[in-house]
Specification:
Elements: H1 21-29, H2 35-53, E1 56-59, H3 61-76, E2 88-92, H4 119-126, E3 130-135, E4 155-156, E5 159-163, H5 169-176, E6 182-187, H6 193-199, E7 202-205, E8 225-230, H7 233-243, H8 255-258, E9 267-268, E10 273-274, E11 277-283, H9 292-306, E12 311-313, H10 317-342, H11 349-358, H12 363-383, E13 389-393, E14 406-407, E15 414-415, H13 416-421, H14 425-430, E16 434-442, E17 445-453, H15 458-468
Parallel strand pairs: 2-3, 2-6, 11-12, 11-13
Antiparallel strand pairs: 1-3, 4-5, 6-8, 7-8, 7-16, 9-10, 10-11, 13-17, 14-15, 16-17
Helix pairs in contact: 2-3, 10-11, 10-12
Length: 474
């Protein structure tokens, strides 16, 4: 279990803090609680610490309670829709929920109400999940800090003076504060994993197109992913299976045995092998600026759990970040060209400046970025010919203070945005599954391990992650 130094600025934990999906599902089916009770707990947590954390842009109390009553009726009548049936969740305000606002954190979309559910929301409803409301986002999901929104900044529940990270700030904060059982976010350059890391919860970006994005407001169409934030890796995969419409409906701790990582599996020191799994610690020849204590803490947590892991030097990481910048910039600015021309004053000033700068990406640079991506996909395939899972920090710093735009880890001044995105954005370019898992603390603030794998190896990576955090982060 991961613990953190208490601070006077931490949010009081809500009912769902430390409770897993499987535990809640068991309680429901045993009759020890009801969906209505769970939903009232969620609503009370949002009302209690919600105004200080600012995790929700819109709360649908009436709709949530109606859905909870229906879930209780169905469960009582023997209709079991699976592990999410009756559990409260939050949906990022980039994802359409019929009848609720989708504002993307922007004055541009004030008053916009979704007419239909996004595809991922339809699948959640079929699974019986109860939607409590829409969680906050950095405006149009175009920022990793989570503090630029018409709804105001989202605060980190671990320390309310710190940013939650973005752009799925509200979803991470809601899970970290125990307001909901799990939440949905979107991830274009790290927007699920970054806030998960800063807030101390598990985040999962699935493989590209594993979860449909129909009904999700786009930022960069070839980089956008729908992702999951929850207390444990198995919770994330349980939700993922529902959203991806996989058969079987969920993962349990016996997934470790299925992946060849049962607790009694011996470790092979100095080889990076855990059972039948080969793990490499991904490094760069010229790593981006970061706090060395973060990398040291994360690697120590990994090697304490699995034994010595060898270095793997990836010489194409910088090229991957450059391709990300070109692709995201060109696609985001194209989507926003009309709004920037007609009503630039409705944007947050910082977001507008970034979009205007992105407009300078030439068609030639965009095309080169796409070509680079194709070459990088082949190159990373060679790494996965030798390693099943690649491990590295999720972000190289701890949560910066709200409003900070520069940090100086190890004495090197660097933009907060660049630091937060530096280790997550390559995996959007490559479309690979990636987990962010709590891995300790530095100065009382959460730090996290990122585990990247090939599509189809998610359960193996999750079993490895489970060795670090067998219990929910608290």
């Amino acid at each position: 279990m991961t613990s953190f130094c208490p601070t006077t600025e931490a949010a009081a934990p809500g009912f769902f803090a430390g409770r897993t999906i499987s535990e809640l599902a068991t309680e429901l089916r045993a009759g020890r609680t009801t969906s209505v009770e769970l939903t009232r707990h969620a609503l009370e947590a949002v009302a209690g610490s919600g105004p200080r954390v600012n995790a929700f842009a819109h709360v649908d109390e009436a709709g949530a309670l109606a859905a909870a009553r229906q879930a209780d009726r169905e469960i009582g009548e023997g209709l079991d829709r699976g592990p999410l049936h009756g559990l409260p969740t939050g949906i990022k305000d980039m994802i359409d929920v019929a009848g609720l606002p989708t504002t993307a954190g922007s004055a541009h979309l004030a008053g916009r109400v979704a007419r239909t559910d996004a595809a991922c929301v339809r699948r959640l409803r079929r699974a019986g999940a109860v939607i409590v409301g829409k969680t906050t986002t950095h405006e149009f999901a175009y920022g990793p800090t989570g503090d630029r929104s018409v709804h105001g900044p989202t605060r980190n529940p671990r320390d309310l003076t710190r940013m939650a990270g973005g752009s799925s700030a509200g979803s991470a904060a809601a899970v970290a504060a125990g307001m909901v059982a799990f939440a949905l976010g979107t991830d274009t350059g790290g927007s699920v994993r970054i806030p998960s890391a800063l807030c101390g919860v598990v985040g999962f970006k699935p493989a590209y197109d594993a979860i449909p994005t129909h009904g999700v407001l786009p930022l960069s169409r070839t980089l956008d992913h729908v992702g999951v934030l929850a207390p444990t890796v198995w919770d994330c995969l349980t939700v993922h299976d529902v959203l991806a419409e996989r058969e079987g409906g969920g993962h349990r701790l016996d997934g470790a045995a299925e992946a060849g990582l049962a607790p009694d599996t011996g470790l092979a020191p100095d080889t990076g092998r855990v059972g039948g799994l080969t793990v490499g610690w991904l490094t760069e020849e010229a790593p981006p600026p970061g706090d060395p204590r973060v990398a040291a803490t994360v690697r120590r947590a990994l090697e304490t759990a699995v034994g010595t892991v060898p270095d793997v030097v990836w010489r194409r990481a910088r090229a991957c970040r450059d391709a990300f910048s070109a692709i995201q910039g060109a696609e985001a600015s194209a989507l926003h060209a009309q709004r920037m021309e007609q009503a630039p004053g409705l944007y947050d000033e910082e977001v507008l400046r970034r979009l205007q700068a992105a407009s300078a990406v030439s068609p030639e640079r965009y095309a080169a970025g796409l070509d680079t991506r194709a070459a990088l996909i082949r190159a990373v395939g060679e790494l996965f010919g030798r390693y099943d899972v690649l491990a590295l920090p999720t972000v190289p710093i701890t949560a910066p203070p709200l409003g900070a735009r520069e940090v100086a880890p190890n004495g090197r001044v660097t933009p907060v945005r660049d630091a937060l995105l530096s280790l997550t954005s390559p995996w959007n370019v490559l479309g690979l599954p990636a987990f962010s898992v709590p891995a300790g603390a530095v100065d009382g603030l959460p730090v996290a391990l990122q585990l990247v794998c090939r599509p189809g190896d998610e359960t193996k990576a999750a079993a490895l992650a489970h060795r670090l955090t067998p219990d929910p982060a608290t």
